[in-house]
Each structure stands twice: as structure tokens, then as C-alpha cells.
TrEMBL record:
<feature type="domain" description="Polymerase/histidinol phosphatase N-terminal">
    <location>
        <begin position="2"/>
        <end position="66"/>
    </location>
</feature>
<dbReference type="GO" id="GO:0004534">
    <property type="term" value="F:5'-3' RNA exonuclease activity"/>
</dbReference>
<dbReference type="InterPro" id="IPR016195">
    <property type="entry name" value="Pol/histidinol_Pase-like"/>
</dbReference>
<dbReference type="InterPro" id="IPR003141">
    <property type="entry name" value="Pol/His_phosphatase_N"/>
</dbReference>
<dbReference type="InterPro" id="IPR004013">
    <property type="entry name" value="PHP_dom"/>
</dbReference>
<dbReference type="GO" id="GO:0035312">
    <property type="term" value="F:5'-3' DNA exonuclease activity"/>
</dbReference>
<dbReference type="InterPro" id="IPR052018">
    <property type="entry name" value="PHP_domain"/>
</dbReference>
<dbReference type="Pfam" id="PF02811">
    <property type="entry name" value="PHP"/>
</dbReference>
<protein>
    <submittedName>
        <fullName>Unannotated protein</fullName>
    </submittedName>
</protein>
Amino acid sequence: MIDLHTHTNNSDGTDSPHALVNKALSSGITVLGVTDHDTTSGWVDAIQALRPGLSLVLGAEISCLTEDDVAVHMLGLLFDGSNEKMQVMLEESRDSRLPRMRKMTELLTADGIDISLEEVFAAMPEGATLGRPHLADALVAKGHVKSRDEAFADLLNNSSKYYVTHIAPTPEDAIRVIRQAGGVAVIAHPFATRRGQTLSAMSFPSLIAAGLNGVEVDHRDHSQSERDQLRGIAGDLGLVVTGASDYHGTGKLNAMGENLTDPAQWEILESMADARRVITL
């Protein structure tokens, strides 16, 4: 069982890397992708927690923004974590999250939804990458909403008047950096309409030209028709098809292993990296 997209409390998940590895083992996962938002800080702890029967695919989910301001997430897998350009890109994305969060709290408060930046920090685990889920948790703690899901549905989705973009690479730039660092690039949940604006099929040629390797098709936020359309695009363009849980612990409903990647597709994807970087015991 191959789940290539999960998060720890080093970004916006609720499980430590050690707990994530244990959860994967107990769930029957054999290949686990650790893909925190804009950081590789959980890699060492995940490796230290590794046990026989599980292989780790280390990576990151990179926050991107298209030229027409559509938010896109790009999974970088199997890249060299010491690559300087890669780490600079991740650091710059993390640094832009603070002014973005400050603006979002200001917009909410101006509309009578009182929330402070300090309360968001209080809801964020130490060392985590600041993100909207932590704002959602702060809103829950203040009693403005009942859950993270409600916060995103009503206040924090990409189409909300409270949503603020942040400085981010274009998807094409992110792909190029991932590939230069020896990794593979998979676009995450590209047709998830419930999240707000999405890419169109016309976006894929430029992504292919930049070096895109695969597309995450089987994801909780894709309807069956969206999955079917993406499978057709992947087939036409020669992209690897992946599936994943996008597991966040108790922060989201997503269950470990609820969507999986076919082993044959994973074999193709792994072969596209410039070195074998899967971690096993």
C-alpha cells in the first residue's frame, strides 16, 4: 500500500513524524510519503522512527501561485534535501507566510470575527510551518467555528474574501527546482473545486514543458468526474498517476491510506529521480 502525501506537525498535521510512521505501519502502508508544507524539517525524525516493513519517500508540498493568482500545490518527492536552491525556495515560501497571516487576521477582525496573530501562534505546534489550518484551529478555540472543516468552508477557502495569497514560486518554477534537485514533481489535487479556483486542462502543457512527472488523481477532494478527466489528461500527456490520503492527523477527515498509488505507477515515478532515495531498513 503506497500513500505518497501526508503531513506531520512540522507543518499543519497533528501527528509527530514518529507518530505518523507508527500510524502508517498500523494501517498497512508499505511506502509512505512525508510531504510537509514548504519544509523538510520532519525528515530526520521520520527516518529515526522507521521500522522494518515500511519505506519512506521524503519530500515536501510546495505552495505555488500561477501567473493569474491560482493557488497550486506541487509535491516534490525524492529530491536531494541538501540542494541549496531547493532549500532557498522552501525558506522564502515559509518567510512569506507571516505577513499573509497577519493580513488575514486583520480582515477577519475588521468584520467582527475577533482573532489575533498571537492566538494563531498559540494554536501552532512548536516548529511548525505557519498556515491556514492553524488559523482555523485558533478560530475553533475562540468559538467562532466548530471545526477546521467549517472554518475552511465558511471563512478560509481560496474564494473567501478573507483569503490572502503569499509570495510563492510559479508551479513551473517549483517543478524546475525540484527536478534540478534530482527529484520528481507531482501536482497535488489540481482539480479540487471545493478548495476554490483550480487549474484547467490548458495549464498542463506548460507544466509538462517545465518537467512535471505526475498528477495526483485519487484524492478526497476530487469528484469521480474530476478523477476521470485527470486520468484522461495523464494518459494523453504521459504523466504518472498517483493517489494519496493527504493525511493530516486529527486536523482533517482524511484517513491514512484512503487513496493509494498503484505499485506499477510508483515504480515508474521512482525511476524518474536522478538517484534512489527511498529510505528503507
